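Board work, copied verbatim: 2-succinyl-5-enolpyruvyl-6-hydroxy-3-cyclohexene-1-carboxylate synthase
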Amino acid sequence: MNTTTDKKQVRILFEILSRKGIKDFVISPGSRNTPLIIGAARNENFRKHVVLDERCAAFTGLGIAQQSGKPVALICTSGTAVLNYAPAVAEACYQQQPLIILTADRPPEAIDQDDTQTLRQHDIYRNYIKYTVTLPVEINKPEDEYYVVREVNQAVNAAMRPPYGPVHINIPLREPLSGTAAATESPRIIESVQPQKTLAEKTLAELSRTISESPKIMLLASFGQYDKELSDALARLARYPQVVLMTESISNIHAAGAIKTIDKVLTAIPNGEEPTYAPDILITFGGSLVSKMIKRFIRTYPPREHWNINQSAALIDTFQALTRQIDTSSPYFLKQIAERAVANSSSNYSALWHELQEKAEKEKNTYVEAVPWSDLKAFSILMPAIPAGTALQLSNGTPVRYAQLFRCDQYATVNSNRGVSGIDGAVSTAAGAAIATPGRTTLLITGDMGFLYDSNGLTIADIPPTLKIIVMKNGGGNIFRFLPGTSVLPELEHYFETVQDVKVKELAQINGFEYFEADNEGSLQKAIPRFFESPTKALLEIRTPRVENDKILRNYFKQ
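↓ predict structure ↓
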C-alpha cells in the first residue's frame, strides 16, 4: 500500500484535490511544509514543478493556469514565504485565474511568541481571494474531519466557479513533520453545479432592438482568453454597418473586421472630428485596458449608453458613463445579441472607422520606415517575423504598448499580466506558460528592467526548450520617459529610469539559454530566424538607444 504523510488533514486535502482533477502543483522547498511536499510528491496523479523562489513559483503557477484553464496548486512553507506569493495572488485575482494556495503554518500556540518563521498567516490575502480557511492542527474527533472535508471542498469549488480566482488554505502543522502513514482516506466529494446566467427573452429582445436601431455602436475588448464562441459572435456583429469592433492585442479575439491597433487609429482622427467617431452605445468586456488613448477618448466624448459585460460583484465604470452592468458571460450575451440584432443600413459608422484605419496604416508605415534604429524600428521588424502559432507573452512597461501598434494575426495567444500591471513576474509567468504548453513556442518580450526584476525565473528547472525570451535593452525603465509626469522631472534618470547596464548575456548563459544579440536593423534581421530555430531555450538581446526612443514614439503619434 502507498504511503504518504501521517498528517490526516493533509491526506484528506490531497485526496480531495486529486479527485477534483487538480493536476499541477508548484512546490517551493521548506521545512514546515514537509507534510505537504510528501503528500504531493507521492501522488502519481500530480505534475510537480519545483521552484525555489516563492514569488517566481506563484507567477509560474499563474502562467500554467493561464494557458491550461485549470486550477494550479501552490505549496510553500511558513513565514515570509507566504508573503512572497502576494504579487501573483493579486494578479490572479484581477486576471480571474484559479490558484489554490496551500501554505504551511506554525501551530496557533507559536504565533506572536518570537518563534522562527512565524507570522499571522490566517486570512493574509484577504483582499485578493475568493475564499480562505485555516484547517485544524490535528483531527481528534469526527467533527474535525467533517470540518476539513467541508472546508476543502468549499475552497476548491470557489476557485473553479466563475468568475475564477485564487483561494487560500492555511495548514498549521506541529512537529514531527516527516512521519508517514498509509494513504487510506476516501473523503466525501461535494460538487458545485453552476447554472449559466441567462437573460430573459424580453431583455434580450430590448437590447437587440437597441443595437439594431442605433447608428453608432462600439464593441471594445480588453484582455481575456481565447473563446471561439465569443470570436464568432463578434465577427458576425462586426459585419453590421453600425458596429465597430475594437480589440486590444491581449484580448485574444480572432474576428474578421476587428480594428486591432487602437492607438494607431485614434491618432489619425482629424482635429475637430472626434464627435463623429464617438459611439452612441459602448459595449465593453474583458479586464483592464492597456490603451490610455481610448480611455481618454471615451471619457472626453462619452456615449449615451455604456454596457459592461461582467460577472464581478463590483460595478466596473471605467469611463464614468456606465448605464448597464450585464451579469453574464461575454460569449453567451454577444452570441444571443448577434442572433437577434439586424443591420442598420442607414449607418456608415463601421466604414468610417475602417477608412480611418487604412489612412492610419499608410501614414504610420511611412513614418516607421523612415525612423532610425530604436525600439519602434526594432518592433516593426520583430512583430511580423514571429512564427505562426507562437504563444506571445508581453511584459508590462513599454513592450505591451509597442506590441499594440502592430497588427499581427499569426499568434496562437497573447497574454500579459495586466490585472495589476506589475513588472515583477513576467519571466516566471512565461516559464509557467511554456511548461503548460511544451508543444509550441512561447515567446516573452520584456524590457531590461523587468527582465532583471524577475531574473530568478530563469532558474526554474522545468523550463522547456520551447521558451524564447527577447530583452529590449535600452538601459533603464523607458516607460518613465513616456509618462507626462515623470518625463520632465530632474529625478528621471536616477530615481525612475534607474539607468544601469543589465548583464543580459551573462544571465542568459549561466542559466543555460542560448544567447543571440542585435544592435541594428541588419543584425536583428539575421538573428531572428536563428533565434526562433534554436532547438533549446534561447534569449535574444536587442540593444537600442536609451534617450531616443521616447522622442521617436511621441513623433509617431504626432505626425
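The mean pLDDT is 94.
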